[in-house]
Design goal:
The chain has 661 residues and is of the alpha+beta class. The chain is built from 21 helices and 14 strands. The chain is globular. The termini are far apart.
């Protein structure tokens, strides 16, 4: 029996790292899965990746059937996951999300292995992996995928691991995959070439050539695929030339170039907006990363067979920190820095372990010191694991999206509206096309919310694309709500209006419905829900959100009335006026503005906000809302019909009210 236990203990000891790797993968999988891959909304950027994956399966190579500025590995792997998922009856989006959930979990597990370059201490490395697991931005981006940055960092972490193991060919291969996922992955690509040359061994040139060969292998395979599909030149134009257009135009827009003050402001507005719920982890990570840097720079000797070269890890971290800092003026690309912040947290835990190891030398008995050390480290591990269960963290604009189920309903409505023959031209948001598995009329899907026109890099530019649309007009044009007022889209909107093409904004920046309603007002408008906050206090403002849906175009600008009444019908407060919409202002802020019903687009859902001032002398009791629409200035109300088809008396909807105590 003792021999068997000893043999088992030896087996576990020899495979301890890989057993912990597997445990981290399974735990993170459990946590990320509960975020709800079947509930998280499909965002415009992610919809483009899934759409390109669908196009690949239709036999259309990327860059020829769609214009897109990123390297294509995310879409290529997405197409493979769709092919597998279809055999199990999964919809395309869920298949791709499962793939990226797995990649996000593997990223957590590989971080545990990579952190060996900093310390062999198992607890500090576990703390690093658990911290990454607990970052809501990493977890949500993995579950809501496809997210190229997750795949970029996953491939990069594997490349760093093999660099530490001095397995140059495989390290180069994964650095090439990182670059093929997102152009900034060139950080890992460069390191895979530089590190072998920095080794002071006679074989450094051979090691360098192995790394270059490994990195060029996936790039060459992709090049052959694109060349055989007549897509290589479009790929170069869209991933390289278009980026030069972007950089040149951004330089002009920034009035003089890069600004430290502007970047710091973007960091405060954009970065902390995403990570504000995890400020403690961010602060620990930054402090720990500085500690790692100082320890690496000033450490003269690293003894022990378990220690490996920390410089590739350190240099890659500062490469991504610099990129993210510079790129903050265009977008808060913070996902790549999360693994490095996580390593910083692990280093802080390592410092705690070192302090605890000194307790017996400071007068505390060995037994008590051991109990205190074990309890402290155990508490840290439990807190880090518990933090990972807190739920998803979405950027502010994604919190306003319809849920995936509601987007699916919209996709079904789109199918019913268009049938099998109706053509669609979507600009900037392909969510409805992805969920309904429809094909866009032209390759134009993305001109970019970042102030550049991708189509400028294509022969003929925007004029040629617009001409193609004019020659074969679609039945419906869908425009990303964020880009509705941008200058590049105006020629398309003008043509659609002149040609009688149906227009609609995408569902972006429309929050999920509150309490459901279903009443038709006239023949063109339906109220489908409402939401209001608590508590309700006399003398304060109450924010009531109404959700409307346009059924048909209307030439009239109707006004909305909202009356707060008591159980006897006495009026206590009211609000009258035109409906509003929520509009994006820049990249980070949102505001409401008037949105007349004559401008509503069929099938669009309108989020309409009203502020009602409660009287200071409002008595305790139960109150109700009366809501309806009327023609201005005659005051004639629109007829109201319930789900059963029966008209509602007084042409008004009496909604559930509030209780004032």
């Amino acid at each position: 029996m003792r021999e068997k236990l000893a043999s088992t203990k030896q087996w576990v000891g020899e495979r301890k790292e890989y057993l912990l790797f597997g445990a981290l993968f399974l735990i993170s999988g459990l946590i990320f899965w509960q975020l709800g891959i079947d509930r998280l909304p499909l965002t415009p950027d992610r919809s483009m990746q899934v759409y390109i994956a669908q196009e690949i399966l239709r036999g259309q190579p990327p860059y020829r059937s769609v214009f897109f500025p990123k390297t294509p590995l995310t879409a290529i792997l997405g197409s493979a996951s769709i092919l597998i998922g279809n055999t199990f009856g999964l919809i395309d989006l869920i298949s791709v999300r499962i793939l990226f959930l797995i990649l996000g979990c593997l990223g957590v597990a590989f971080l545990f292995l990579v952190t060996k370059a900093i310390t062999p201490n198992i607890w500090a490395r576990l703390a690093s992996a658990l911290t990454l697991m607990g970052f809501g931005l990493w977890a949500t981006s993995s579950a809501a995928g496809p997210e190229p940055k997750i795949l970029t960092m996953f491939s990069g972490l594997i490349s760093l691991w093999f660099l530490a193991e001095k397995r140059w060919l495989i390290a180069g291969f994964f650095s090439g995959l990182s670059f093929l996922t997102w152009q900034p992955g060139a950080i890992f690509l460069t390191l895979s070439w530089v590190v072998p040359l920095s080794t002071r061994t006679p074989e450094r040139v051979k090691s360098f050539l192995q790394s270059v060969l490994g990195s060029m292998l996936p790039i060459a395979l992709l090049g052959v695929y694109l060349l055989s599909s007549d897509a290589l030149l479009p790929a170069l134009r869209q991933t390289i030339v278009s980026q030069l257009f972007f950089l040149a135009q951004r330089q002009n827009l920034l009035s003089g170039g890069w600004s430290l003050e502007r970047t710091i402001l973007r960091l405060l507005q954009g970065g902390t907006r995403i990570l504000e719920e995890e400020l403690g982890l961010v602060v620990l990570g930054v402090m720990g990363w500085l500690g790692i840097t100082l320890e690496t720079v000033f450490s003269r000797q690293r003894n022990g067979k378990d220690n490996v070269n920390p410089w590739p890890l350190l240099l890659s971290g500062y490469g991504w920190l610099l990129f993210s800092f510079l790129d903050l003026q265009a977008a808060p690309d913070l996902i790549p820095v999360l693994p490095y912040l996580s390593m910083g947290s692990g280093w802080i835990v390592l410092m705690v372990i070192r302090v605890l190891s000194q307790l017996p030398a400071r007068g505390l008995s060995k037994a008590r010191g051991g109990v205190l050390s074990t309890a402290t480290i155990g508490a840290i591990m439990i807190l880090l694991t518990a933090n990972a269960f807190k739920g998803s963290i979405l950027p502010a604009e994604e919190k306003l999206l319809l849920s995936l189920q509601e987007q699916m309903v919209e996709a079904e409505q789109l199918q019913a509206m268009l049938g099998t023959e109706g053509k669609v031209q979507a600009l900037g948001d392909l969510s409805l096309l992805v969920l309904s598995e429809r094909q866009n009329q032209t390759p134009l899907i993305h001109l970019g919310p970042k102030h550049y026109n991708l189509a400028r890099s294509e022969p003929g530019g925007l004029e040629k694309i617009l001409q193609e649309i004019e020659e074969s007009p679609p039945r419906l044009m869908i425009v990303d709500r964020r880009n509705w007022n941008r200058s590049w889209v105006q020629p398309f909107l003008q043509f659609a209006r002149e040609a009688g093409i149906s227009l609609r904004r995408s569902s972006f920046l429309v929050s999920a419905l509150g309490k459901p309603l279903s009443f038709n007002l006239g023949d063109t408008i339906r109220i489908i829900g409402y939401r209001m906050p608590t508590p309700y206090l006399p003398g304060q403002d109450l924010k009531l959100v109404l959700f409307w849906q346009s059924l048909e175009p209307t030439a009239d600008d109707y006004h909305i009335f909202i009356h707060l009444i008591d159980s006897r019908g006495q009026l206590w407060a009211q609000d009258d006026g035109q409906p509003t919409q929520i509009l994006a202002q820049g990249d980070d802020q949102t505001t409401e503005s008037p949105y007349p019903t004559s401008q509503w687009i069929p099938w669009e859902i309108v989020r309409d906000v009203h502020i009602i001032s409660l009287p200071p002398d409002l008595p305790p009791g139960e109150y109700y809302f009366r809501v309806g629409m009327y023609q201005f200035p005659t005051g004639e109300r629109l007829p109201v019909v319930g789900e059963d088809g029966k008209p509602i008396p007084n042409r008004e909807i009496v909604m559930e009210g509030i209780v004032v105590e």
